[in-house]
Design brief:
Number of strands: 7
Oligomer: single chain
CATH architecture of the largest domain: 2-Layer Sandwich
Number of domains: 2
CATH superfamily of the largest domain: Histidine kinase-like ATPase, C-terminal domain
Largest sheet: 5 strands, mixed
Structural class: alpha+beta
């Protein structure tokens, strides 16, 4: 009986134990582990097949890690290129703006030339805005976005955003409402960067809401991780976003739909843009240790299910020490 037990242990139990140990090692991430079973029986065949599968998995993993390193390097190169290009473009565009404003001041009532200069100024302003967005993205990507928190009233921020978009709201006959914001407590945040968050979020709501639609901004107090916070909700009656795109829209350059079909106006319905707004908004909210997400029933340009964007910010601001914000060139 002892002899039989010895052979059973040697032929069956020991190889199975090796298989179990090897499978656990692989499950924990050690793809170099092998069973080291060399028998020709069924267990040996199983072990050999298992080792072959592990070898292929290890090779695929090595290839994926190599590809991932290449992609990361390409992404860093792309970010550096955008940063350098944006800085190089900003200086001449600032000169164009300045000279255009000077010429406009000296036109002395020439309506036709004033119209042309207004077009030049509008185009240059749009270009400078795109350049600034590119710089913001590179700061976020390189962890160089430095905020300067201070106590502020959120209502001031939203009134400024509303003023910027008021002409587009009127032109497209949109209903724009703000409620509950004035009742919120002051929060500790960077006023300029927070303005950019809601400029991009509300701008997107306007852009993807058909003429005659509604955009609403609502706010209330809440708690996050046991600490006081405020939640801002921007809701529109626009074309909506498919579930598979609802996280991707916060990635840089990502756009829904056929980009080539987008109109050129930034506040026109489905207006064009570089696809940076929500990526910037997320980066700024993250720097404030807040959260941003959205909900939508899907994309439908007939039923217009709309999109709701949520922004939650701590009342007391980020808990870590931050450096003074970098001044623009």
């Amino acid at each position: 009986v002892i002899l039989i037990g010895y052979f059973v242990a040697r032929l069956i139990i020991n190889p199975l134990s090796k298989l179990v140990r090897t499978s656990r090692a692989i499950a924990s991430g050690d793809l170099t582990k092998r069973t080291e079973i060399e028998s020709k029986d069924e267990i040996g065949v199983l072990a050999n097949t298992f080792d072959t599968m592990t070898e292929k998995l290890q090779q695929r993993t090595i290839e994926l890690e190599k590809t991932n390193r290449i992609l990361e390097q390409m992404d860093r190169t792309q970010t550096r290129f955008i940063q350098v290009s944006a800085h190089e473009l900003r200086t001449p565009m600032t000169l164009v703006q300045g000279y255009a404003q000077m010429i406009q001041m000296k036109l002395n009532g020439n309506e036709e030339m004033s119209k042309y200069m207004a077009g030049i100024l509008e185009g240059s302003n749009r270009m400078v805005e795109v350049i600034d967005n590119m710089l913001d993205v590179t700061r976020i990507e390189t962890k160089g976005l430095e905020i300067m928190p201070a106590k502020l009233e959120l209502d001031v921020v939203f009134q400024k955003v509303k003023k910027v978009f008021q002409s587009a709201i009127d032109e497209r006959k949109l209903t724009f409402t703000i409620s509950g914001i004035a009742d919120l407590p002051p929060i500790c945040a960077d006023k300029d960067f927070l303005y950019k968050v809601f400029y991009h979020v509300i701008g997107n709501a306007i852009k993807y809401t058909p003429d005659g639609g509604k955009v609403s901004v609502t706010g209330w107090s809440t708690r996050e991780a046991g600490k006081p916070a405020v939640e801002i909700v921007v809701k529109d009656t626009g074309i909506g976003i498919d579930p598979e795109s609802q996280k991707l829209v916060f990635e840089k350059f990502y756009q829904t739909g056929e980009v080539l079909l987008h109109s050129s106006g930034k506040t026109k319905f489905k207006g064009g843009g570089p696809g940076l707004g929500l990526a910037i908004a997320r980066g700024i909210v993250d720097a404030h240790q807040g959260r941003i997400w959205l909900e939508s029933k899907g994309h439908d340009e007939t039923k217009n299910p709309g999109t709701t964007v949520f922004v939650r910010l701590p009342v007391d601001g980020p808990v870590h020490e931050v450096k003074p914000r970098e001044l623009k060139a």
